[in-house]
Amino acid sequence: MSKSMMITKEDILQQVKLSFKIPEIIEQIVSRKIITEAVAEAGIKVETEELQKAADQIRLINQLHSADDTWAWLEKHGLSLEDYEEMVYNNLISGKLVARLFADQVEPYFFENQLNYTSAVIYEIILDDEDLAIELFYAIKEKEMSFYDVAHKYIQDKELSRKCGYLGTVQRKDLKPEISAAVFAAKPPQLLKPIITSKGVHLILVEEIIQPELDNGLRLQIMSDLFGAWMKQRVEEVEVPILQEATR
């Protein structure tokens, strides 16, 4: 038999405090207020049809295929219909603000920072023993063993072992500098000499280097990066003494 339990707003706030989430939530609140002010200053308007389309997209993303699904989802997350409409509006104005501020900056930024968006398809094995790594490196080079045999044997994570250490497509910013330098200097397919970092000794197979193309996906990523930097700077300029005092 299930047991009913009452949870109050005070309980939720206390749990937020105990989970050390207050700074994160304050930053989110400040960010939302900054966006609202910037949207007003820019004179950005939202049409009813845009709101409806954005609401439909959110329902699609969350697999809310019926009114019952939507109401159940709202109840689960403690949201009212007005909260949902506010969320849709905030998402929409954020996207419009990003486009207004940074759409014209994408191409010059891309050409100035093109190397940062070069990506590589790599496989990786991390070992604890440098001597073993060197031994395995030469064993693979001499074709005494394959990289995939070594991955199956020495990668402890079962899922990663099944994928033979496959990390997928990674960008420069995803890698430590010492690894990035070696990876993007490679001539694929190439097995790199063992690289030592704080995580261990890396054996890396570079399968492919992918030169970036300024498609819609990369345009959105660049605008998101620019907006993130813009928002970080503005959040750092804001002081919230009243909110900080309220959380003591």
Structural write-up:
The protein is of the alpha+beta class and 248 residues long. The protein folds into two domains: 9-108 and 219-246, no CATH class; 119-210, Chitinase A, domain 3, CATH 3.10.50.40. It has twelve helices and five strands. It has helices at 9-18, 22-42, 48-61, 67-76, 81-102, 106-112, 130-141, 147-154, 158-162, 177-183, 216-236, 241-246; strands spanning 119-127, 166-171, 190-191, 195-197, 200-210. Strands 1, 2, 3, 4 and 5 form a five-stranded antiparallel β-sheet that branches. α3 packs across α5 (81-102) and α5 crosses α11. The longest helix has 22 residues, at 81-102. 11% of the residues are buried.
**What count of helical segments does DSSP give?**
12
- The SSE string, one letter per element, is HHHHHHEHHHEHEEEHH
Q: How many DSSP-defined strands?
A: 5
The structural class is alpha+beta
Overall geometry comes to extended
The helix content, as a percent range, equals 55-70%
Beta strand %: 5-15%
Amino- and carboxy-terminal Cα gap: 39 Å
Indicate the low-confidence ranges by residue numbers. 243-248
Overall mean pLDDT: 93
Give a quick summary of the entry:
The chain is α+β, with helices and mostly antiparallel strands and 248 residues long. Helices cover 58% and strands 12% of the residues.
Task: Break the fold down into its secondary structure elements and pairings.
Layout: H1 9-18, H2 22-42, H3 48-61, H4 67-76, H5 81-102, H6 106-112, E1 119-127, H7 130-141, H8 147-154, H9 158-162, E2 166-171, H10 177-183, E3 190-191, E4 195-197, E5 200-210, H11 216-236, H12 241-246
Antiparallel strand pairs: 1-2, 1-5, 3-5, 4-5
